């Protein structure tokens, strides 16, 4: 056995070890963000983004450790699945959070949705039949 | 080397899980708790992935996918429920 | 059945995707298994009918690869930025909700832009107005008007990139005119 494969093995091991540590740190980043950010919306940023990168790195390290080609499509499918679901759930939670006033207005430097929401609410109160048309602010 | 990596990741994930649980316990609103529960599930998925990578098997993969699906369905359901409950009293 | 028939060409991306998922779930990419998966995919697509996604019919691979690489880089940047903000700024972070009107009116384009935007630095889609295809985006660490303009430009650039990959011909020519003007 020549030393070449061993070297390659060691490099792959090192890369996957780095991936694993960084992936775990990403989970830690999400938790720190959850604890330190002041309102729901900024916590949501913390909860969604490191999750995606963390899972990517961990799945990549699984693929590197197993060293067979057929696991890569499986891992890719798992990751794409998360890529498709995470923004949807974040959007749903964010929308519900905005509508139920879980928002600290003093923390916003600008809010371009509030005027639209109030206009729509006013229009809905004035006439039930009025859908859209004047919803652009 | 794998032993060191395992220790570091275990400590990081344990701290992260502790943070998420603190947020679940303290979270001022329902949505905060849902979000923290989602993160806790993601941490669980990360732990499963690390187990797969260190022990070189692929048995947990479907479990990881299932965990992320549960997080997705759970948070979407709760978000819809919160939005609905909030809108009803405001109607005349 | 009185449903509108979907042409095979329109359905093909869905079928290919279903076959790939089938193979991935079995962790077996042998021809026999893939053939069985293809039969199942056709059966599923026929039985559980969904409204077809209106694809534009063009897909530019040369543009897609750099976009995917840039996307990955921005996901990394997003996570690092959130980590930094969580540790350094914590409770003092300032945000904004910004309205960004998009060029395209197709549902697929708005959805794709929203997904990409949710995953890159400091932005999250709060609300979508489908009739005017306007996205309302919550930006993390947006302190003043300058940051708002920067955020809006980033969203529009992302959409432009997606149009170049898979927009319709009309959207592409409109974009080219806008850039040329």
Automatic annotation (TrEMBL), chain A:
It comes from the Bacteria. The chain crosses the membrane at residues 12-35, 47-64, 70-93. Keywords: Membrane, Transmembrane, Transmembrane helix. Signal peptide: none annotated. GO terms for molecular function: sodium:proton antiporter activity. The keyword Magnesium does not apply. The keyword Membrane applies. It holds the Pfam family PhaG_MnhG_YufB. PANTHER family: ANTIPORTER SUBUNIT MNHG2-RELATED. Belongs to the CPA3 antiporters (TC 2.A.63) subunit G family. This is Sodium:proton antiporter. It comes from Arthrobacter globiformis. The lineage of its organism: Bacteria, Bacillati, Actinomycetota, Actinomycetes, Micrococcales.
Automatic annotation (TrEMBL), chain B:
Keywords: Cell membrane, Membrane, Transmembrane, Transmembrane helix, Transport. The keyword Transport applies. It comes from the Bacteria. GO terms for molecular function: sodium:proton antiporter activity. It is a multi-pass membrane protein. One of its GO terms (cellular component) is plasma membrane. The chain crosses the membrane at residues 35-54, 61-83. Coiled coil: none annotated. InterPro entries: MrpF/PhaF-like. It is found in: Cell membrane. PANTHER family: NA(+)/H(+) ANTIPORTER SUBUNIT F1, NA(+)_H(+) ANTIPORTER SUBUNIT F. Belongs to the CPA3 antiporters (TC 2.A.63) subunit F family. This is Cation:proton antiporter. It comes from Arthrobacter globiformis.
TrEMBL record, chain C:
It is a multi-pass membrane protein. GO terms for cellular component: plasma membrane. The chain crosses the membrane at residues 35-52, 64-87. Its main location: membrane. InterPro entries: Cation_antiport_E. This is Na+/H+ antiporter subunit E. Keywords: Cell membrane, Membrane, Transmembrane, Transmembrane helix. Pfam families: MNHE.
